């Protein structure tokens, strides 16, 4: 019988707080498709201000936020987007930009820190002289923090550099900012400054910020006008959506300040797990709330098996591969949960080596 559950599968697993539920219950609502829902308009205005952009649009998910942004920037047929080969848009969004939007993806290798080399980005931009045979490059996408690179943060200097490159070639820049607030807090850079170079950003409210549902796209007024139409076309137009936006407003007010604690818990957990025989964590590279745990070769346990044993102790994590598991911290994981998780990892790993040299 599991006495305690510690859900580290993702920062998408948080449950709405009592304050969010109360705000949802009393939310002022109307028809958002008719641009009449006062709470949705308030959230959008608040987010535009926080992110330093002209306008904002509430969307049902981060996947739809990225899809809408790419489709608006690449509204002309034959467009191409440059993005990371390990980016969420390329790996985990069903290829929607191509399947639905007919936009051609041109990947550039992601470095371990989530960046793409500027010279490789520039080399990937199609030469207009080849327009008879080439797609036309119209957009560059970044991801900050970078989920598949372990929550690493793109610096403001790097982001500005990509923005400068985009402008030099007449391209737009979109940031998948599912965890942009994690990056802002970890870097100590105001979020509006961190995304200043971007033409659009998709910000998840439902991850580290802890809202039950939704993301917000921010950008120019003209961009958001087109995005609103694209959202409707994709079936994302919602009616009394103020119920969800009310929870998101509470999340912004209450949870941005908690992100630093998530990062501190991630550091404690990463350092602790790294000290367990048979496991390795590049703990010095843990910058935000995501940890990748590698199982050493001389261990007999697989990622899937370790996840199963941990689950028997009430610890929920996801396998990243046969020898790697992913841990994601969030505001509903306490320091006591971290200590309990560490002890469960130690129990789970006990006696799983092929020889005594497994150190
Ligand atoms: C980096 C990143 N971008 C986008 C998304 C998509 O967000 P959603 O799950 O709300 O579609 C996720 C995860 O969910 C993510 O980790
Ligand atoms: C798996 C991925 O799609 C999700 N964004 C997560 O980080 O949990």
TrEMBL record:
Threonine aldolase involved in threonine degradation to glycine. May play a role in the removal of L-allo-threonine. This is low-specificity L-threonine aldolase. The modification N6-(pyridoxal phosphate)lysine is found at residue 207. It comes from the Eukaryota. Pfam families: Beta_elim_lyase. Pathway: Amino-acid degradation; L-threonine degradation via aldolase pathway; acetaldehyde and glycine from L-threonine: step 1/1. The gene is LOC111465586. Keywords: Lyase, Pyridoxal phosphate. NCBIfam families: GntG_guanitoxin, PRK10534.1. GO terms for molecular function: L-allo-threonine aldolase activity. Residues 7-294 form the Aromatic amino acid beta-eliminating lyase/threonine aldolase domain. Belongs to the threonine aldolase family. GO terms for biological process: glycine biosynthetic process; L-threonine catabolic process. It catalyses: L-threonine = acetaldehyde + glycine; L-allo-threonine = acetaldehyde + glycine. Its cofactor is pyridoxal 5'-phosphate. GO terms for cellular component: cytosol. Its EC number is 4.1.2.48.
């Amino acid at each position: 019988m599991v006495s305690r559950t510690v859900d580290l599968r993702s920062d998408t697993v948080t449950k709405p707080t009592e304050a969010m539920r109360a705000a949802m219950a009393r939310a002022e609502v109307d028809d958002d498709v008719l641009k009449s829902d006062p709470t949705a308009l308030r959230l959008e205005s608040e987010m535009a201000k926080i992110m330093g952009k002209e306008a904002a649009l509430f969307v049902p998910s981060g996947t739809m936020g990225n899809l809408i942004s790419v489709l608006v920037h690449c509204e002309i047929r034959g467009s191409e987007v440059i993005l990371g080969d390990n980016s969420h848009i390329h790996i985990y969004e069903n290829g929607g930009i191509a399947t639905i939007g007919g936009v051609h993806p041109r990947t550039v290798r992601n470095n371990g820190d989530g960046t793409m080399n500027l010279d490789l980005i520039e080399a990937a931009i199609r030469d207009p002289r080849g327009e008879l045979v080439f797609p036309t490059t119209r957009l560059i996408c970044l991801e900050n923090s970078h989920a598949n690179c372990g929550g690493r943060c793109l610096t403001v200097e790097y982001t500005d550099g990509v923005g400068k490159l985009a402008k030099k070639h007449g391209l737009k820049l979109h940031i998948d900012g599912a965890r942009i607030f994690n990056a802002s807090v970890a870097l100590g850079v105001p979020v509006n400054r961190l995304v200043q170079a971007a033409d659009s950003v998709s910000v998840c409210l439902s991850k580290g910020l802890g809202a039950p549902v939704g993301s917000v796209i921010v950008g120019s007024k003209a961009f958001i006008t087109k995005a609103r139409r694209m959202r409707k076309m994709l079936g994302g137009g919602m009616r009394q959506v103020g119920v969800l936006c009310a929870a998101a407003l509470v999340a912004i007010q209450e949870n941005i300040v908690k992100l630093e604690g998530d990062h501190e818990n991630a550091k404690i957990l990463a350092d602790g797990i790294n000290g367990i025989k048979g496991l390795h964590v590049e703990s010095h590279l843990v910058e935000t709330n995501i940890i990748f745990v590698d199982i050493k070769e001389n261990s007999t346990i697989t990622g899937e098996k370790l996840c199963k044993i941990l689950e028997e102790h009430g610890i929920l994590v996801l396998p990243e591969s046969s020898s790697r598991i992913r841990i994601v911290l969030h505001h509903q994981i306490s320091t006591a949960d971290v200590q309990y998780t560490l002890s469960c990892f130690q129990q789970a790993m006990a006696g799983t080596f092929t020889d005594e040299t497994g150190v």
